[in-house]
Amino acid sequence: MSTPHINAKLGDFTETCLFPGDPLRAKFIAEQYLEGAECVTNVRNMLGYTGNYKGQRISVMGSGMGMPSCAIYATELLQHYQVKRLVRVGSCGVFDERLDLNDVIIAHAAATDSSFNRQQFAGLDFPAVADPRLLQQFLNYADKSGSSVALGLIFSTDNFYGGDTALWPLFRKFGVLGFDMEAAALYSVAAQFNAQALTVLSVSDNLLSGTKLSAADRQSGFATMIEFALNALTPSA
C-alpha cells in the first residue's frame, strides 16, 4: 500500500506519530531517541520512521512547511495508515518578553490568516483546537514532571516574512503567544478523521529581542521539547 506522498506499507506506522515540519528533524528524533528505528517512507525525501521509546512503539514523520503540506501528510497518515494521534513538534516565533529561545509552548488552539479551514468547512469559521484528551494528558505530565511549559494560543500564518507588526498588540490582547505555519490546518484535518492532534512548539525566534536560533539548531536541537513530548506520550513507560 502507498499513497501519492508516502510509500510505507500498512502497519509501518503506529497509532501515535510525532509530526515535525523538517524531515531531518524526524531523522534526528528517530536516530537519537528511538530504539530499532526503521525508515518506512522516503518519497520526496519526506522521511518517516518507526521505532521504540522506552518499550513503546512510536512513529515520527516530517510534515513539510506550511498548512498545505502539513494537511497532505496528516490526511494520508490518518486516512490510509490508521494513525490516530498526531503531535506536531515544531518551532515558532514569539513576541512575548517572558519567553526565551527553546522555551516550550503547548498550543491549545490556533488562529490563522489562512483560508484553508474555510475551504474545508464550507466557507465558515472552524474552531481550530487541540484534542482535549491529548491536551490534558500533556498538561498532567507537565504537572507531574515539573516541566516548565507555556499554554496558549498560536497564530498559524501563510506569510512567513510579511507579518503585519501593527497587529501584534491585538494578538497579545487575545493571548496569542506567537506564530507557526501549521497548527490550524493540523487541528482541522484531525477533526475530519476523529483523530487526536496537539501542537507542541519550541521557541526559535523572539521577534521583540531579535534573537533567533541557527539553522542547525532548528534542525537538530529542541531537545527539551522532543523529550517532553515523548515522555508525555508514554507516561507509563
From TrEMBL:
InterPro entries: DeoD-type (IPR004402), Nucleoside_phosphorylase_CS (IPR018016), Nucleoside_phosphorylase_d (IPR000845), Nucleoside_phosphorylase_sf (IPR035994)
Catalytically driven reaction(s): uridine + phosphate = alpha-D-ribose 1-phosphate + uracil; a purine D-ribonucleoside + phosphate = a purine nucleobase + alpha-D-ribose 1-phosphate; a purine 2'-deoxy-D-ribonucleoside + phosphate = a purine nucleobase + 2-deoxy-alpha-D-ribose 1-phosphate
Site (Important for catalytic activity): R218
Residue intervals of the Nucleoside phosphorylase domain: 17-212
UniProt binding sites for phosphate: G21, R25, R44, R88, V89, G90, S91
Binding site for a purine D-ribonucleoside: H5, D180, M181, E182, S204, D205
Documented EC number(s): 2.4.2.1
GO terms under cellular component: cytosol
Enzyme class, UniProt record, top EC level: transferase
Record bears the keyword NADP: no
Gene Ontology MF, one: uridine phosphorylase activity
PANTHER family: FI09636P-RELATED, URIDINE PHOSPHORYLASE
Family note: Belongs to the PNP/UDP phosphorylase family.
NCBIfam families xref list: deoD, PRK05819.1
Protein name: Purine nucleoside phosphorylase DeoD-type
Organism: Pseudidiomarina atlantica
Record gene name: deoD
